[in-house]
Design goal:
- The complex is a heterodimer of chains A (294) and B (677).
- The radius of gyration of chain A is 30 Å and the shape is elongated.
- Chain A starts with a helix and ends in a 24-residue tail after the last helix.
- Helix content of chain A is 76%, strand content 0%.
- Chain B has a four-stranded antiparallel β-sheet. Chain B has a two-stranded antiparallel sheet with strand order 1-4.
- In chain B, helix 16 packs across helix 19, helix 18 packs across helix 20 and helix 20 runs antiparallel to helix 21.
- The radius of gyration of chain B is 46 Å and the shape is elongated.
- Classes of the chains: A mainly alpha (294), B alpha+beta (677).
Chain lengths: 294, 677
């Protein structure tokens, strides 16, 4: 068995067993006339704090807080377990209060963004690796400029040396905008090679009208079109890898705040901040004229 | 394999963890400052050789530039940019911005008037929703939550442990449900006193099992422990998992068929209010009268799904009327005079004044039980009667004992005073004394029952006949009748002749004595009951009517059979209606089989201990009541909320309830009156 597969099985098993134990405990509390929602709520809150602390761990690399890879594994499996705890907390009912619904939506969005991020971080690097060259996201604008300069200088050199302007005109009409502008949002969301194929097909079509010298330059243009397209592909996929964190982290801290507020008000309205964890006994009711008369 | 896009690279290492980035096409090696301004670096630091400045830029950064340094020794490459925030920094600012917006939103929310509307976790159940609909959300919430009306400051004070939010939620529940539960036992397990519950548990299981479950049932159990609100309009507030019962109950019951104990006499275990031995009636009395024994003659299905018992007139009168009337033929004395030797009393120093000649010859006779009870309102007479004993007869007076003669004289004087009061005040004298005996005012219906048409004229005639100027013309009829009251000259008594079964006067006095049996005059009250509520007493009441006893004293008499619609909630409930849809069960005998080998029911403590039926067997129910068929949840047959009286746990609770009720009634009728019990 591959270590990766074994790790998944072990971690999944631990998460499943933990959830099963929590479900058993919640059931036991419920059958003991306790308010399991308080128990599962606090547990969920603790889980969310641990999940959010991964961000803190990444900011403090010098402290001996364990390997980041271990934290990542815990973050993933605790995240999945928190879905089950959340379902136990809401007792498999759709919340219908304004605050509760908002909180549930924020939780669902955080979980969804986390799952999407997990999927992307597991699949996009492989797709990027297949492209070939590794490119830093921050370097992409400079490299775009480099390709554009390279294409322009090649064309100018060809025009200068051969005196032919066919390729120059073709470049001006069909390719300069491609090299000069950024790709659309549509491409970022769904990157395809259609435009590259279209441009290369057009250029192939145009080569019949080119001189030998221009054809050699056209070959270089083919390469630059492909490279620019690869760069755009990197840009699109790496933007996703950067962008989902905007959503995930931006939701995490408001979620913690809303959850803390929800817990606080739930305890306030249930009668007592501490008694929510017990069976809501009111031993003090005795002197208020209520209680257990013997 | 293609080569890299930029083989030489930019020569700069990007640091995405830094908050600022250089936005220049060719970033400088220094990068922006932490404050986000350009560091305005140079391409090199020119080196002076003689009078010339030489570029010393390394090959890694592009090598010496073409222009070279200026004559003043400044590098020709001057980096200049407008730094931009890194992605990480932008993300951080975005997160903080969102967080501040949410925090601001929450602060705005909890300070606003529609705070509760937003915090409400969902719809109330229909029964609550239709009642709590008026006004703003804030006003709706305060019906059940103290926090709903609290300010943000109070919330904070409560959170930091200083101030509790009052009232508690269960108290707010009781504001509306005070008619359903006694506040005293509202949070007690099964709404019963813990002591009674312990007693019952010990009796049933032979162990002190209470409090050994998952929770300690001796503690308070809040309403919200079982009744969870805000789960929508159609949520069933009363639904509870059978397993929840085992939070307290240690005996594990997974299946009715296999785990539930046998019924052990239910529903015949408890003595019925009317002693009716089905076995003897079915096997002996009805055949003797050549009558068929049909259940429907006495029992009908009522609207509540129970089986009610028809009244005396429909069910019993045809056979029992004659016997009851015969027992009442002699009447019951309200007041009677004993015979005594007035001279002996006078010699002993007991001056009793005038005494009827006809009753002045020797010590004999008893005071009527009603008279004894009423005389007990007079402390002197009470102590005198207690000295002679509750059953005393003047025949037993020892004429050689001066003390006994003195005491007898006291009783006679008190009796004469009572008779004088009757003449002077009329029937209200009876009520006044009865109120003293009970220590509480009597209601008008109660007083009317004790007087039952007794006229002042009748009382005046009685006194004047025996103590006043005797008119010979009045001697014509020794049996002067005023309604159902008669003067019986043979026994020197004023007698009441009950009208038959359910006579209010007789019931009134028996009820009064039962109530007085718990007070300071219990000796005389108990004696009255012994004499007037025995199988041979007038009316034969105790033959059929059972009583609640406390320390072997009757404290309440059941005059009516228990009707299902007025039955207090017990632990077990059963509705006949859904069962009677099955043809097999429409025959009562399919479940209720009369004992044939036990012709006479066991009588203990003056009460029939069972109704003459064979015990019900669990198997009769278990054939249908399975998880897959009719269901087997605990709450199908058992109530959690139990009326202390319905639980048959503690007769004192019944009295407590009566006291409470009377106290309320009396406060309504006699504002400010203080009961002296």
């Amino acid at each position: 068995m591959r270590p990766f597969t074994r790790r998944r099985i072990v971690n999944s098993s631990i998460a499943i067993v933990a959830v099963a134990l929590i479900a058993w405990w919640v059931r036991r509390v419920e059958l003991s006339l306790g308010r399991s929602a308080f128990h599962s709520g606090w547990l969920l809150m603790a889980a969310m704090i641990v999940l959010a602390s991964y961000s803190l761990r990444k900011r403090l690399p010098t402290l001996p807080l364990g390997r980041s890879a271990w934290w990542m594994q815990m973050h993933i499996y605790l995240g999945f377990a928190s879905i089950a705890i959340f379902l136990l907390h809401i007792q498999w009912r759709l919340p219908n209060g304004i605050l509760e619904t908002t909180l549930a939506c924020v939780f669902a969005a955080t979980i969804a963004s986390g799952c999407l991020g997990l999927y992307w971080t597991r699949t996009l690097p492989q797709r990027l690796a297949r492209v070939g060259e590794e490119v830093l996201y921050e370097e992409i604008p400079r490299l775009r400029q480099l390709i554009r300069d390279h294409a322009q200088s090649t064309i100018l050199a060809t025009v200068r040396t051969s005196g032919q302007v066919t390729l120059g005109e073709y470049y001006d009409q069909h390719l300069s905008s491609y090299f000069a502008s950024r790709r659309s949002w549509q491409y970022r969301l769904r990157p395809t090679s259609e435009r590259r194929k279209q441009l290369m097909a057009d250029l192939t079509e145009a080569t019949r009208y080119l001189s030998d010298a221009e054809r050699k330059t056209a070959e270089q243009l083919f390469s630059l079109i492909r490279r620019r397209d690869d760069l755009d592909y990197h840009d699109a996929l790496q933007w996703r890898l950067k962008g989902w964190l905007f959503v995930h982290i931006a939701l995490t801290f408001p979620l913690l705040l809303l959850a803390a507020f929800h817990g606080w008000t739930a305890h306030l309205f249930s009668g007592d901040l501490l008694l929510g964890l017990s069976r809501l006994d009111y031993p003090r009711l005795g002197h208020l004229g209520m209680g257990v008369a013997t | 394999m293609r080569g890299p896009l930029d083989p030489e690279g930019s020569g700069d290492y990007h640091r995405p963890n830094q908050p600022w980035q250089c936005d220049a096409e060719t970033p400088c090696p220094l990068g922006p400052t932490l404050g986000g301004s350009c560091s305005h670096g140079n391409g090199c630091h020119p080196k002076q050789e003689g009078d010339r400045w030489l570029c010393n830029r390394s090959d890694m950064r592009g090598g010496p530039c073409e222009e070279g340094p200026s004559p003043e020794g400044e590098c020709c490459v001057q980096y200049n940019c407008t730094p931009t925030r890194s992605i990480r920094s932008r993300r951080g600012r975005f997160v903080v911005g969102i967080l501040l917006a949410v925090a601001g939103g929450l602060l705005t929310l909890i300070s606003s008037s529609w705070r509760n509307e937003v915090l409400a976790p969902g719809m109330l159940t229909r029964p609550h929703a239709q009642l709590i609909t008026t006004g703003q959300s804030k006003d709706r919430c305060i019906n059940c939550h103290a926090a709903g009306n609290a300010s943000l400051g109070q919330w904070w004070a409560h959170t930091t442990g200083g101030v509790a939010l009052q009232p508690m939620q269960s108290q707010l529940c009781m504001k509306c449900h005070e008619q359903t539960f006694s506040a005293k036992y509202a949070l007690a397990a099964h709404n019963l006193p813990v002591a009674s519950l312990c007693e019952r548990t010990a009796e049933k299981h032979g162990i002190e099992a209470i409090g050994t479950g998952r929770i300690d049932s001796r503690n308070a159990i809040a309403c919200a422990a079982c009744h969870r609100e805000h789960h929508g309009l159609d949520h069933d507030l009363t639904a509870i998992d059978s397993a929840s019962c085992q939070a307290c109950h240690v005996e594990k019951i997974d299946s009715f068929t296999t785990d539930h104990p046998e019924f052990t006499g239910w529903p015949y275990r408890e003595p019925t209010r009317i002693s009716f031995d089905h076995a003897s009636h079915s096997g002996k009395h009805f055949p003797k009268e050549d009558q068929p024994f049909n259940c429907q003659q006495c029992h009908v299905e009522d609207q509540g799904g129970g089986i009610s018992t028809l009244g005396y007139e429909s069910s019993c009168a045809s056979c029992h009327e004659k016997g009851i009337n015969a027992s009442l033929s002699d009447g019951v004395s309200l007041v009677s005079l004993p015979t005594l030797d007035a001279e002996t009393l006078l010699e002993a120093g007991a001056e009793i004044g005038a005494w009827p000649e006809d009753a002045d010859f020797d010590f004999d006779g008893q005071l009527s039980p009603v008279t004894r009870l009423l005389l007990s309102s007079d402390e002197r007479a009470l102590s005198a009667m207690q000295m002679l004993g509750p059953e005393f007869s003047f025949f037993d007076i020892d004429i050689d004992d001066p003390q006994q003669l003195q005491v007898a004289g006291d009783i006679i004087k008190s009796l004469k005073q009572f008779v004088a009061e009757l003449e002077e005040k009329g029937p209200s004298a009876i009520t006044t004394r009865a109120e003293k005996v009970l220590g509480r005012p009597l209601s008008k219906p109660e007083a009317a029952r004790l007087e039952s048409g007794l006229s002042q004229q009748m009382l005046q005639e009685y006194r004047q006949h025996w103590f006043g100027q005797r008119q010979t013309s009045e001697e014509a009829s020794p049996e002067k009748v005023s309604g159902t009251w008669k003067r019986d000259d043979a026994s020197f008594a004023l007698k009441y002749h009950p009208s038959g079964h359910s006579d209010p006067w007789l019931q009134g006095w028996l009820d009064l004595a039962a109530e007085a049996n718990r007070g300071g005059r219990s000796v005389m009250a108990d004696q009255l009951l012994k004499e007037m509520f025995s199988p041979t007493s007038p009316g034969l009441c105790s033959t059929c009517h059972t009583a609640v006893r406390e320390e072997d004293r009757i404290v309440k008499i059941h005059w009516r059979s228990l009707q299902t619609d007025s039955r207090p909630r017990g632990f077990t409930h059963f509705s006949h209606t859904p069962h009677l849809t099955q043809p097999r069960l429409q025959d009562c005998k399919s479940c209720h089989r009369v004992s044939e080998d036990r012709p006479q029911g066991e009588v203990r403590a003056g009460q029939l201990q069972d109704s003459g039926f064979e015990p019900l067997e669990k198997s009769g129910c278990a054939s249908c009541h399975t998880h897959q068929a009719a269901g087997e949840s605990c709450t199908q047959c058992h109530h959690y909320h139990v009326d202390p009286i319905g639980s048959e746990l503690d007769a004192s609770l019944l009295l407590e309830r009566t006291e409470e009720k009377l106290s309320v009634d009396n406060q309504d009728r006699f504002p400010g009156s203080e009961l002296q019990r």
